[in-house]
Design a protein that fits this description.
By secondary structure, the protein is an alpha/beta fold. The protein contains eleven helices and nine strands. It has a seven-stranded parallel β-sheet, with helices on both faces. A two-stranded parallel sheet has the order 7-8. The model has no long low-confidence stretch (mean pLDDT 93). The structure holds NADP nicotinamide-adenine-dinucleotide phosphate. The site of NADP nicotinamide-adenine-dinucleotide phosphate has 27 residues, from β5 and α7.
Amino acid sequence: MSSSHVLGRGRTALVTGASRGIGPLIAREIANRGGHVVLTGRSSADLKAVTSKLAAGGADVSFIAADLTESGAAEMLAGAVDQQHGGIDLLVNNAGGDPLREFHAMTIEENLRTLQLNLIAPLALTHEVLDGMLRRGRGHIVNISAMAGRVSFPYTEVYAAAKDGLIGFTRVLRSDYHARGVSASVLILGAVRGAGQGQRMLDESSMKASAFMVPAESVARAVVKAVAKDRAELVIMPGPGRLLRAVMDYFPALGPAMNRAAGATTTMQKIIEQREAASDAAA
Ligand SMILES: NC(=O)c1ccc[n+]([C@@H]2O[C@H](COP(=O)([O-])OP(=O)(O)OC[C@H]3O[C@@H](n4cnc5c(N)ncnc54)[C@H](OP(=O)(O)O)[C@@H]3O)[C@@H](O)[C@H]2O)c1
């Protein structure tokens, strides 16, 4: 069954992490199909700037600021969209990120915040919107995951756990609710260039984008493709992404070896040191 009936006129999407990075591009791509898109993130100023820009381009958009690591945020967001727009047809759990510090150097509370943002918040939002979707007999949830766990990218222990958790969550969700009109897709992203955390890392380390990075616009287009074609899982990276992911699983030592060969560990250590120096200077 196609779930493209959640896109277009009369439909409402909620996109998290839409104040900066890849999120604004996802919001624009969905808005281009018609319907209303609600953007969310913590920064009201950034959300206001993004919604104004998208609206100037003809998109039907609005925003609600919320911190997804705070308790009650999912309930508040879903309730506000319900009240203003009569429910959410498409939920894109895009907000996420990683502090990129060594696991042992962060407190357990800091580590759990990463889990909250990248895994618990998507679960909580899905839980909030599911009843309404089932009542209306239509809905689609898109979760944004990452290759981090598969390639053992340095200093991403909790982020990798969360993003792998999101893949399992999406598979079972899709299987349980598909027959009742509610579908789910997960996008597993490799490194992204042009916007977002990958591009920021390049800018900080003065490294050049590699051929292995995908443009942020491709991620946005893939979100709409996953919904329109009702795809279970899309791996967004150059080349045969799903095959590469399977190879990484088959040879678990390959990812760390590639990271070492590419100098990822050394680069990440330098970025950590630069960030610590910058925060010490600001204090
Ligand atoms: N870029 C990449 O190379 C890459 C690779 C693999 C996977 N991904 C995944 O793609 C998604 C988007 O990443 P990105 O690169 O666009 O990241 P980004 O540039 O760091 O943007 C993150 C977004 O999440 C929001 N956010 C962060 N903390 C939040 C919180 N506590 N509550 C609510 N919103 C919060 C941010 O807005 P505020 O700061 O305003 O809250 C922002 O809109 C993430 O799930 C990321 O893990 C990205």
